[in-house]
Amino acid sequence: MTSDSQPGRYRVTLRFTADDNGPAASGYWTDPHTAQRAYRSWIGTHGSTTVRIQLTEQTARRSLVLASWTRSTGEVTGCPRGHQRAGSG
What we know:
Distance between the termini: 17 Å
Strand content: 35-45%
Radius of gyration: 12 Å
Number of helices: 1
Largest sheet: 6 strands, antiparallel
Number of strands: 6
Helix content: 10-25%
Order of helices and strands: EEHEEEE
């Protein structure tokens, strides 16, 4: 993981509710393989009926969802339509 002052390019977010306004925890990594391992680990340790776990690639211009997991949908990889957020990050 990287320091809070200089987050890495890859972000894993654990959202404790189904909506975007609920509490969340995030970690940032510079290496995509390390971020992928963290994402999978969080699914294994924190997966429940109410959480959403996402792996995103952050740049100055956008945030691209690389993978997302919920118990109801399982894992969705790539960037499903509507999951790319221009200007966020």
